[in-house]
């Protein structure tokens, strides 16, 4: 057992962050950047096209100014922190401003969506158990949730569990989030791209 000496700080909890200020302050100015290179974006777009049926309602969780979704999916709702970013996202049919680290309950009815995606943002969640429990609730039976991430992040806002893990550890962490939320038939893989590493963990609500 590792016991901190009296003059040592205790180790950080798994969901603590270097910058514990409200996320709304961090994102008050638009950050119009993409966190993946073009080749990885195209691979992710093609993966979405395979896993999400066209014509449905999609929730883009922790959304920003680009969603990397294929055309023709249907109605896409973004939920994120910066109004200007989401207004400039050409794929969103509507959006909701919400800080999931302050208010992790999703403002949508049960079984409202045909798919939920979360792209390169899962590392910032401090209440992933609640958020993915809510994802389970708002998905229609049989509908998928697709979580993608690379090896990039804003390190002061990523949780300690993420920063302390390697790529395989990140995959195990996200897989655990989905399993805890009873999102089943989990696919966990590294996707080959021309540039960035890309990892995808996907599951579905039982149906």
Give a written overview of the molecule.
There is one protein chain. The chain is α/β, with parallel strands linked by helices and 207 residues long. It has one domain: Rossmann fold. Helix content is 25%, strand content 22%. The protein contains six helices and seven strands, in the order ααββαββαβααββ. The chain has a seven-stranded mixed sheet with strand order 3-2-1-4-5-7-6, sandwiched between helices. It is globular. The N terminus is likely disordered.
Distance between the termini: 44 Å
Report the CATH C-level class. Answer: Alpha Beta
CATH architecture: 3-Layer(aba) Sandwich
Mean pLDDT across residues: 90
Poorly predicted runs are: 1-7
The dominant shape is: globular
Per DSSP E runs of 2 or more residues, the count of β-strands stands at: 7
Kindly report the spatial arrangement of strands forming the biggest sheet: 3-2-1-4-5-7-6
Name the CATH superfamily assignment. Vaccinia Virus protein VP39
Largest sheet at a glance? 7 strands, mixed
Helix content: 25-40%
Strand coverage percent: 15-25%
Give me the CATH fold name: Rossmann fold
Instruction: Using the CA coordinates, give the radius of gyration.
Output: 17 Å
Brief descriptors of the model:
6 helices, globular, seven-stranded mixed β-sheet, single chain, 7 strands, 207 residues, Rossmann fold, alpha/beta
Which secondary structure elements does this structure contain, and how are they paired or packed?
Blueprint (H helix, E strand, L loop, with lengths): L22 H4 L11 H14 L4 E8 L10 E7 L2 H5 L6 E4 L17 E5 L8 H11 L5 E6 L10 H4 L3 H14 L3 E8 L6 E7 L3
């Amino acid at each position: 057992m590792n016991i901190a000496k009296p003059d040592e700080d205790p180790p950080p909890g798994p969901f603590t962050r270097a910058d514990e200020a409200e996320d709304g302050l961090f994102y008050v100015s638009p950050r119009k950047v993409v966190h993946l290179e073009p080749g990885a974006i195209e691979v992710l777009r093609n993966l979405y096209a395979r896993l999400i049926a066209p014509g449905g309602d999609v929730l883009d969780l922790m959304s920003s100014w680009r969603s990397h979704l294929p055309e023709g999916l249907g109605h896409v709702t973004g939920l994120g922190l910066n109004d200007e970013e989401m207004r400039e996202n050409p794929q969103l049919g509507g959006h909701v401003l919400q800080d999931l680290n302050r208010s992790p309950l999703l403002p949508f009815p049960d079984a409202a969506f045909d798919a939920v995606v979360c792209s390169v943002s899962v590392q910032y969640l401090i209440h992933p158990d609640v958020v993915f429990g809510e994802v389970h609730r708002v998905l229609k039976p049989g509908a998928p949730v697709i979580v993608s991430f690379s090896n990039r992040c804003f390190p002061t806002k990523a949780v300690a569990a993420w920063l302390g893990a390697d790529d395989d550890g990140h995959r195990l962490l996200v897989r655990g989030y989905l399993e805890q939320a009873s999102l089943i038939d989990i696919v966990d893989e590294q996707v080959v791209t021309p540039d960035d590493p890309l990892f995808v963990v996907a599951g579905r609500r039982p149906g």
